[in-house]
Write a structure and sequence with these properties.
The complex is a heterodimer of chains A (343) and B (347).
Chain A lengths: L2 H5 L13 H28 L6 H10 L1 H15 L7 H18 L4 H25 L4 H19 L4 E2 L3 H8 L1 E5 L2 E4 H19 L1 H11 L1 H6 L4 H27 L1 E2 L7 H11 L11 H21 L5 H27 L3
Antiparallel strand pairs in A: 1-4, 2-3
Chain B lengths: L1 H6 L3 H17 L7 E3 L2 E3 L1 H24 L7 H16 L2 E5 L2 E5 L4 H26 L3 H20 L3 E3 L3 H8 L1 E2 L2 E2 H19 L2 H10 L1 H6 L4 H27 L1 E3 L7 H11 L11 H21 L5 H17 L1 H11 L9
Helix pairs in contact in B: 2-13, 3-8, 3-11, 3-12, 3-13, 4-5, 4-6, 4-11, 5-6, 5-11, 7-11, 12-13
Chain lengths: 343, 347
């Protein structure tokens, strides 16, 4: 990097955001809490509502939230690196839109169109990463502009919803994999599980993952350690773009249409899932597996509210907001606890 | 002289606005025409001013928040909450009074407005407490209310669009005073009051100090937390006022769509006005001009005949350009590239 950056390096003691050996327990506790919360909610649902405790209800959690899980894995890496990506929801919408247009209006096959949109999403993410890294722009404002751009591009293609009637595509979408009798998974849910598995491997088993944690812990230190900070930052946003595009493909499977208003506000649900999954918003601490549980908790809330029947759908948003608040508070308590301890 | 003019912080926002207006006028010959009808002024310019009013008010609040190095992405949700509370409390039914049909509100209008603004203020203070008290990053702290706020707004409206039947309420967003839209007086009053509070007292200086370096400001004895909470509270209140204007203008409240994406427009207006996103330097006048630029852009797009959907792409492009121009790294690299070809371009 430029010499100016090294001069700007603060020589102050860490403000409590640096992961340390003590930080590990602080990282694991929210995760444990999340898993417990999920178990408690599922147990409550099973006792309170008839028909809740069945394999298919739980598999449906995965099927209905497959796109959220995929996009949340990408977001986990971004937040681990200390950034944020607000463009994910609109990239999903753009992906469904481009996919629908290519397949329906230009006669592409699913096999040709899907890789094309994945490349598109990755490039979109990489472009944002490049702006953030090269010009030291704030991630949220860059991705906010990216969000405008992607939604705008959707409307440029068409303001109306384009339904996908292509046979090969809908066959793929309706494909079910029977696990045991009466319980099956969609292809989207399978993709989500694979993405989570790859995400866990990337985060904990590769140099890329370790660099992401290092950048999130302290970018200056990572730089001084000689880690490829610039490249990794761009790659993180490219990964998030790829995940968003893949989630868009799964979303198109799920909805069988492309529409500029798809996945409105999804970026917020995604951030909520990552935070509830125990990833620290200051970066550097968290688990990809936790994110999966964060997604499942959001899914359980929705399922509980729909099983209840008397609560209206907007309660979902209020409950998610309250959970987000509780977990943010929890994170601050951990940070404060670590900050007080002598360095 | 020219150099001094160009160095003024309002120079570029004003140039952008004039450029927009010129483009507008070239596509629409009657753009500058003002007509006097029924004691009111009518015309495209008045229309733009009137429509930009809610955004301008939200931008004023957002300017202060951004000046303290924060961000408030819950303003859209607060707009929806305030609109929902006001619309629900006023409602309005046809009743017979002395043999004449009159519309009566559910609660007195003054009380309804006070409650709506009170709720908005509370929402802002909540954000401020999360940021300054608990210490959560501003974008996440306000994200909580952004997620939950729409739910709360829908709770108030019970998921319906509430239509208001109470003519006195329509005056706020649709009435005229001295021939001008009443909303302009609200913007003017708020702006003047804020400008006075910031320049006549040390408040403006304190806010700037917090934005430049929060820790140093606290060391220097600035009551950083209190001021931050107040700034977020004011931002909430401003969003509440904007919510009243919007719901009064459309005579209804929609918990789901009122003020949708308003937070983005407000951030865009503030950046266009020359306020740095990194905190510190801010300009209230710039933000009002920024709001006008956005509204003019919207009407330009309508008058050119381009589908309004392009609006988002154009806005995105504008944000990217402004962002890059504000980035010291980009300016240095561009400067090295062009080598003093355009000394004013980076101002």
């Amino acid at each position: 990097m430029t010499p100016a950056k090294i001069i700007a390096m603060p020589s102050l003691p860490p403000t409590g955001t640096t992961p340390s050996r003590r930080g590990l327990s602080a990282a694991q506790l929210p995760l444990a809490l999340t898993v417990l919360l999920f178990a408690a909610m599922a147990a409550y649902g099973s006792f309170a509502y008839e028909g809740f405790f069945s394999a298919q209800v739980f598999l449906n959690l995965l099927i209905d939230n497959a796109f959220l899980a995929i996009v949340a894995v990408g977001m986990t890496f971004v937040i681990l690196s200390g950034g944020i990506d607000l463009s994910v929801g609109s990239v999903i919408a753009l992906t469904t839109m481009v996919l629908a247009t290519l397949v329906e209006r230009h006669g592409w096959t699913a096999a040709g169109a899907i890789p094309a949109v994945l490349v598109l999403g990755t490039l979109f993410g990489a472009f944002q990463g490049l702006l953030i890294q090269r010009f030291r722009l704030q991630p949220f404002i860059v991705t906010l502009a990216g969000m405008f751009l992607a939604r705008g591009l959707c409307y440029l293609i068409s303001i109306d919803s384009i339904s996908i009637g292509n046979e090969g595509f809908s066959e793929l979408a309706q494909q079910r994999f029977e696990l045991w009798e009466g319980a099956s998974l969609s292809i989207g849910a399978l993709i989500a599980l694979v993405v989570v598995a790859i995400g866990i491997y990337l985060a904990h088993g590769t140099a890329f993952g370790r660099t992401v944690y290092a950048i999130g812990g302290n970018e200056q230190s990572a730089l001084l350690m000689g880690l490829p900070v610039a490249r990794t930052t761009v790659l993180v946003y490219a990964l998030s773009g790829f995940c968003s595009a893949l989630a868009g493909v799964v979303f198109a499977f799920y909805m069988l249409s492309g529409y500029g208003l798809h996945a409105m506000g999804l970026e917020l649900d995604t951030i909520a899932a990552v935070v509830i999954g125990g990833t620290l918003l200051t970066g550097g601490v968290g688990y990809v597996a936790g994110t999966l549980f964060g997604v499942l908790i959001l899914g359980v809330i929705q399922t509980l509210i729909s099983f209840d029947g008397t609560l209206s759908s907007w309660w979902t948003r209020i409950v998610i907001g309250a959970l987000l608040f509780a977990f943010c508070l929890l994170q601050r308590l951990f940070e404060a606890g670590r900050g007080r301890a002598p360095p | 002289m020219m150099k001094k003019l160009m160095a003024h912080r309002l120079f570029w926002p004003l140039v952008t606005l004039l450029l927009m207006l010129a483009v507008n006028a070239s596509f629409n010959p009657g753009f500058w025409q003002l007509r006097w009808r029924d004691g009111h002024l009518y015309g495209s310019v008045i229309d733009i001013l009137n429509r930009a009013a809610p955004l301008a008010i939200v931008s004023l609040g957002m300017t202060l928040v951004i000046a303290t190095r924060g961000i408030d992405i819950s303003v859209g949700a607060v707009v929806a909450i305030s609109a929902a509370v006001a619309a629900w409390m006023i409602g309005g039914q046809l009743v017979m009074q002395d043999g004449v049909q009159v519309y009566a509100s559910r609660f007195p209008m003054g009380l309804a407005l006070a409650c709506a603004l009170g709720v908005a203020l509370l929402a802002g203070l909540w954000n401020g407490l999360l940021v300054a008290g608990v210490g959560i990053q501003p974008i996440i702290a306000t994200l909580i209310l952004m997620v939950a706020g729409r739910g709360i707004a829908q709770l108030v409206t019970e998921g319906q669009i509430i239509t208001v039947y109470y003519p006195p309420f329509f005056f706020i967003g649709g009435g005229f005073l001295f021939g001008l839209p009443f909303s302009l007086f609200i913007v003017g009053a708020l702006w003047l009051a804020l400008q006075q509070a910031l320049s006549r007292t040390a408040l403006g200086l304190f806010i700037q100090a917090i934005g430049v370096n929060p820790a140093a400001a606290r060391m220097a004895g600035v009551r950083q937390r209190l001021i931050t909470v107040c700034v977020y509270g004011f931002c909430g209140l401003a969003a509440g006022v904007a919510g009243l204007l919007l719901s009064s203008n459309v005579k209804s409240a929609d918990g789901n769509n009122a003020g949708l994406l308003m937070e983005l427009d407000a951030i865009l207006a503030v950046t266009l006005g020359g306020t740095l996103l990194t905190g510190g330097r801010f300009s209230l006048a710039g933000s009002v001009i920024g709001a006008l630029v956005i509204q003019t852009l919207t009407s330009t797009i309508y008058s050119i005949g381009v589908p309004p959907e392009v609006n988002l792409v154009v806005k995105a492009a504008v944000v990217f350009v402004v962002m890059l121009l504000q980035s010291p790294e980009f300016r240095r690299q561009a400067h090295a590239l062009v080598f003093r070809a355009a000394p004013g371009a980076a101002a």
